[in-house]
Amino acid sequence: MRVMQVMAGGEHGGAETFFVDLVTALQKRGLDQRAVIRRNPERSKILRDAKVPLAELRFGGPLDILSKPALRREIARFQPDIVQTWMVRATKACPSGQFVHVGWLGGYYKPPHFQACDHVVGVTQDIANHMRAAGWAESRSHYLPTFAVRQPAGPLNRADYDTPEDAPLLLALGRLHVKKAFDILLKALVSTPKAWLWIAGEGELRAELEKLAADLGVAGRVRFLGWRYDREALLATADLCVFPSRYEPFGTVTIEAWACDTPLVAAASAGPAAVIRDGEDALLVSVDDVEALAAAINRVLDEPALAENLVAAGRRRFEAEFTEEACAKRYLAFYENLLDSPSAVAPVHGAAQ
After folding, report:
1. CA dihedral defined by 282, 285, 289, 295, rounded to 10 degrees?
2. Given this chain, do its domains 2-147+323-345 and 158-321 carry the same CATH topology?
3. What are the C-alpha distances in Å from 56 to residues 8, 12, 39, 134, 308?
4. What distance in Å separates the CA atoms of residue 43 and residue 19, rounded to the nearest whole number?
5. Is the pLDDT of residue 92 over 80?
């Protein structure tokens, strides 16, 4: 079984991170695969270090006329049984051929973008249902969850980030995008006067968020760390992970916090609300509710027993449902089932039509 994984995503993002994690996990388990990615030095180094055969293409905008024929050549050379294209750009660049085409959805993307696929995979059941509502058969629209990589790491030296050792430390992870609602978190920080905040992420709103922190008078307690790949160490350093997203189809941060034994407070956007059991393995608050977010943060920081209970329950959820081993087994079984099915072997492009 040969599988080509095609990712034309941005420089940073949760889908891009999961792509690397999954391809690496499948490589460790002996899958014969090849990755084709948009040029990215950091991502390519991680994949090459993991011994993943790799090609890098431009995958640019509408004027890019070279990437699609280049991808066609890569497919012709590798002769994959399955091509899995991640998100919209890679899916639209994929030619038809004698392989099973799987489109991966990390959000509620427009179904017509995937009409050339034989199967689609949603990172939540609700995303799979979104495709079924657009006409996709249940047999061709699948739910396969993500996972968190548990690589125990020691805490970082807070002094390196000009942060007091004894201050309650909050950690937020994600792109600096309006969907992530870091503006709400900064406003909540006003009502959590003892806490400091590290934001590990990068994006177009960085200057705006830095200005907001200054305007709110909390800039002295906030550190913008940029995009980081040492998420386990960051979570080991923090006293609480905060996930305030307005829009989050899944939210890998949830299971990363569980994997690293870090208590979690999250906004009840679609993904976290579907996974979290409020008050049991994390605290959920309404989206865009500054007061509720601050109250939940203060509650966890002020009640050590609550924090311990959230951590213990989160760890149980992670071990039962969201480990690398469980996810890799699901994907390998999924690929094998595709090739065992006679209807899947012959391409049936336009399955939703």
Report:
1. -60
2. yes
3. 9, 16, 5, 33, 44
4. 10
5. yes
191's tokens? 């009502």
CB atoms within 10 A of CB 145: 17
Instruction: Tell me if 141 sits within 8 A of 318, measured CB to CB.
Output: no
Reduced to 3 states, what is the DSSP secondary structure of residue 242? strand
What is the rounded distance in angstroms from the CA atom of residue 101 to the CA atom of residue 81? Answer: 9
CATH superfamily of the domain spanning 2-147+323-345: Glycogen Phosphorylase B; (3.40.50.2000)
Contacting residues for 85 by C-beta, under 8 A, at least 6 apart: 6, 91, 93, 94, 101, 102, 103, 104, 117
pLDDT value of residue 351: 38
For residue 344 the two structure tokens come to: 């899947």
- Domains of the chain, by residue range, sit at 2-147+323-345, 158-321
Report domain 158-321's class: alpha beta
Residue 343 has a pLDDT of: 58
* φ, ψ of residue 86 in degrees (nearest 5): -95, 115
Q: What is the pTM of this model?
A: 0.76
What does the pLDDT read at residue 347?
Answer: 39
Decide if 247 contacts 179 (C-beta within 8 A): yes
Per DSSP bridges, beta strands 82-86 and 54-57 are: unpaired
* Rounded Cα–Cα distance for residues 284 and 282 (Å): 7
Dist CA 97 CA 80 (whole Å): 10
CB 275 within 8 A of CB 245: no
> Pick from 317, 314, 319, 279: which is nearest to 300 by CA?
279
State the pLDDT confidence band at 177, using cuts at 50, 70 and 90: very high
Each residue's pLDDT tens digit, 114-162: 999 999 999 989 999 999 999 999 999 999 999 987 777 899 999 999 9
Compute the average pLDDT of residues 243-259: 91
